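Blinded run. Sample ID left blank on purpose so nobody reads anything into the name before looking at the predicted structure. Input follows.
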Amino acid sequence: MSQIETEQTKKPASSIDNYFKITERGSTVRQEVLAGLTTFLAMVYSVIVVPGMLGQAGFPPTAVFVATCLVAGVGSLVMGVWANLPMAIGCAISLTAFTAFSLVLNQQISIPVALGAIFLMGFFFTAISVTGIRSWILRNLPIGIAHGTGIGIGLFLLLIAANSVGMVVKNPMAGLPVALGSFVSFPVIMSLVGLALIFGLEKQRVPGGILLVIIGISLVGLVFDPNVKYQGLFALPSLSGPDGKSLIFSLDIKGALNPLVLPSVLALVMTAVFDATGTIRAVAGQANLLDEDGQIINGGRALTTDSMSSMFSALVGASPAAVYIESAAGTAAGGKTGVTAAVVGVLFLLMLFLSPLSYLVPVYATAPALMYVGLLMLSNVARLDFDDSVGAMSGLVCAVFIVLTCNIVTGIMLGFSTLVIGRIFANEWRKLNIGTVLIAVALVAFYAGGWAI
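Blinded prediction complete.
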């Protein structure tokens, strides 16, 4: 082959290919679209869960449904088009629970003030991202803890998926907190069959194998599961609740500046900084989107998009936003560029008018995909440098306690603290830098002060 022919074969096929670097990153438009569909199906449950949780606190569920779709749609589009990364954004389930049950129901904070607190959280979060503090945290994330975060998130995904279908349940007896659920139940059987099918299809390199399994199991559910029903195709979105009032621009920022509310804002900021930062790092690592220094490609834009999405959430009446762990389902399906996230964004905006379709994808259809992604992320164990026993063991502490406490920030805090103390007692204090020590001290103080979510 001549040099001219070689250059022509390497030339991007279109302006879209050139902008998103699709060919350069070893992907195709078809692969990116399939990855986007996979991520969307893996996280579409949020449009049901988030309105349900906030509805218990008095938020109008129909209005929250619209807000949830808008946050995921706009946030994911910005992440895809501006940051060019295959990471989808949505209303964070953990922060949704904190908003509903702690802020509104427990502390008796009004909904407008709660939205004001979310806006302030997004503002401070964005300031931390724009000024480079968040990037500084990423640069000072020890490699062992970085890999440990990926391992822990993988285990966390496995637990979430297994629990969602009843495979792992809360232990009703004395002893350990979890137990095996009903092994012969339809959701558990379908989840295990789906996981095995993904193993086979991915081994055979079948394009869109994960997506095919999700669609196939959804169709089986439609036939055999009475809970999966076709409820129509179109539904006009409602921007207000039963009382006719809309949550859009209803936030009360002045009320959120009350000294009694500010500690909750701090808790939201700290949790979001380390939870979302750890998630972004883990997903980027799983997709091989790190530069030669181990930093996230376009990391600054990704962090800024992530943080500003929470400000947008407050404006439209939703809970804080974050990059979804389920984005790893799309990267496992081959997503490497922002096209994946853009597809997710478009589908969530279409979901505003296609809400009945969300009920056609049962949880046991997406659980196998999350389990598979969780298993893939466990490969980070091989990246741990066990010649550096303190660094490797600190990473494992981080990983294990992410899943044992069901909290990414808790795992990161324990990883940092054991690393610093371990380095000192192993006479390896020269391997520590001031940034790592400062982060460890801040995290321990955050937990010791009782501010952790």
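Unblinding after everyone has recorded impressions. The radius of gyration is 22 Å.
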